[in-house]
Sequence to fold (265 residues):
Amino acid sequence: MPGQVTFTYAANWKLQLENCSDAYHFTSAHPSYIRVLERRQQEISSDVVASVWESSDYWKEDTKGVAGGSYSFANGHVLNWGVFGITPASPLYEQAGALAERHGEARRDWMFNMRNLTIFPNLQIAENASSQLRVIRPLAPGLTEMRTWCIAPKGESAAARRQRIRQYEDFFNPTGMATPDDTVAYEACQAGFAGMVAPWLQGHARGMTASVAGGNRFSDRLGITPERSVLADAQLCDETLFHSYYRAWASRMADAPAANGETPA
Ligand SMILES: [Fe+2]
Fold:
C-alpha cells in the first residue's frame, strides 16, 4: 500500500509511547532536521505569514505566552500539542479559510497546531511535520514492530499533497531525518535499562507542578474534557503523560493472568 512502512527497533514498545508524548527531546535529538527547517523558513515570504497571523485573534491573544501543552484522558490516552501558527509550512495553509467556514475557527486553529495523540496502548496519530498513523506491536521485551501510514485529508491540491509527502519523507520513517534519531535513542535506553551498577536517574517528574485537574481555555474552546492538563509558557517539558501510560499499563497487568511467572515487559 502506498505510504505504508513497517520497521522494527531493538527496544521496548513503551519507549515509542514516551517519545511521542515528549516534546523536550526535539531540540537535542533532531538538530539536523532543525537546520533544514530553519533554511526552509528563510525561504518563506514573511509577508504571507504576517497577513494571516494578523487576521486571527486566536494567534494574537489566546496563545500569547503559550508554547503548547498536554492533556491526559482516562484509560491512558494522551495528547501533547504545540503552537505552530497558521503558516505556509503546513499543507493545510491553502484551506485555512475554507476549514474555518466548515469547522469553525476554534477547530481550524487547532488543526494548525502540532498534535501528537496516543490512543493507549498502541495507536498513535502524529501531526507535526506531516501526518502519520502508527500501530505499535511488541514482538519481545526488547523488540518492537512499527507499522506506519502517511495520512492526509481528501481534496488537497496537488501542490499541498506534494508538500505533505515531501515533509513526511523529511521527518518520518527509517529513511527520514527524525525517526532514526528516535529509534537509536530507544535502543540506547534499552541498553541503559540493563545497567546494574548505577540506578536509572532519568525520572519522570517534569511537569508535575504544572499539571492541573481538568482542562483549560484551549480544551474549552474545542469542547473536550481531559482529566488533567499542562500549559507551557516556553518549551513543553511535560512528563506527566507518561504517568497516564504507566497507570493504565499497571492496571492492565494487574488484571492479566500470570503467564509463566515472569514480570510483564
Ligand atoms: Fe523525536
User: Anything to note?
Assistant: The two ends are 31 Å apart (CA to CA).
